[in-house]
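Researcher: Here's the sequence for the chain we discussed earlier.
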Amino acid sequence: MDFDLNTEQKMLQKSAREFFSKELDSEMVREMEKDATGHSPQIWKKMARIGWMGLLIPEAFGGEEMGVTDMAIVLKEMGYAAFTSPYFFTAVVGVSLLLTGGSERQKKKLLPVVAKGKKILTLAWNETGVETACSGLSATAEIRGDHYLLNGTKTFVPFGHVADQIVVAVRTGPAGESGEDGISLFIVDRDQPGVNVEVVETMADDKSCELNFENLKIPTENMLGEKNQGWPILKSVFQVSAALKCAEMVGGARKVLQMTVNYAKKREQFSRPIGSFQAIQHHCADMITHLETSDLILLETCWRLDRGGDCAKQVSMCKAWVNENCRRLYLLGHQVMGGFGFMEEVDHQLYYRRGKAAEAMFGNADYHREAVARHMEG
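Model: Thanks. This is the structure I predict for it:
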């Protein structure tokens, strides 16, 4: 494979880098964390005008019809800027769910407005705190004539308080031995009676929410995919999402490396820059190794996803590797910067918090190492 970006991808990278450099700084990032919505509607509209909301959406539905690699390019720049918004769960997770499991009617109804930036989507899956666990799924939907009644609680729903539509995973049949059977997906309007949303405080300050559903009436036509066949859809979407979450992490790691090296050049101890000491130099050398290897496995994973087929083993290798190596990079940065890096006024802690949250999303390193081992057994 060719690791070089083509002309169009280089232009996309350049425009994304310039956009976030112009529109965003660390002060604004902190303001968005404190804001009730957790993001900037103004930047959201600008991104929609550029066409980024529809990067993965086919042209037939008003999108740009680009690939996973193209989306990774934009997400790396978002990670570098520590940009927070419902973008990932709208333009990646939500769009992928619709493309994978949505009916033609559902696609025609939602994808064009998502591409224009007029709808925010999210996924309500988690209940146990384990991102990939099926066995703990207990929210239910029971058929009542021409509709279902949904009851249950979902935790860690990203931007659930501002999402227009939420794809909710529930039990509609027996779980089976693995817990993967009997799962169905429904598209739910957030402002319906029976939906209660509460923002939960987290280390990443990423506007995760708890959603409680009490006898929520959902039309049967709002089912995404076939009854009891929700897990295959989720499994496919989680592959793409896990890889692209790695793109955000790699972008953030690049920024942490730059901040650490700049600090090592300027900070003096014993009348010389600390970057002149061998121990600090070795830390920085290890950091760039962690970054470059993570970027390379990410590029190969996106390349494979763009070519189709089952990429489960490759995605798991990527997520396990990026999780571990980005964490090591962040921690080495803290070693170089010392207690200064943990101060709220310093950006290093901001990236560390975001990185820790990203590690858990779509499976932590242990989960994906076990998945790789299972593939090797076959």
